[in-house]
Write a structure and sequence with these properties.
Layout (H helix, E strand, L loop, with lengths): L13 E6 L5 E6 L12 E6 L11 E3 L9 E4 L2 E4 L2
Antiparallel strand pairs: 1-2, 2-3, 3-4, 5-6
């Protein structure tokens, strides 16, 4: 399944994502999954895009906050997000 059509449980509104500097991982956030109570807090999903033909359920990171996930970008080894 193409990354652009990937569906996951409890999706809200897929707003934006960003590639890591090495372009091996796609970091993704959902703008409404927190608002609708579908996840316990601000969450990012981490897609391994080294082989686009074998996408699987991505691991996710819950940041322990309740703000809505919004724009994010990487700078070096850091992910910056406007939540």
């Amino acid at each position: 399944m193409p990354l652009a059509r990937y569906e996951y449980e409890d999706d809200g509104y897929i707003h934006q994502g960003w590639l890591t500097p090495d372009q091996q991982y796609f970091l993704h956030n959902d703008e409404l999954d927190e608002e609708f109570g579908q996840v316990a807090g601000t969450t990012d999903r981490i897609f391994d895009v080294r082989d686009l033909d074998t996408l699987s359920e991505p691991p996710h990171v819950n940041h322990g906050t309740t703000s809505i996930g919004h724009n994010e970008y990487t700078e070096g080894r850091y992910l910056h997000a406007a939540n």
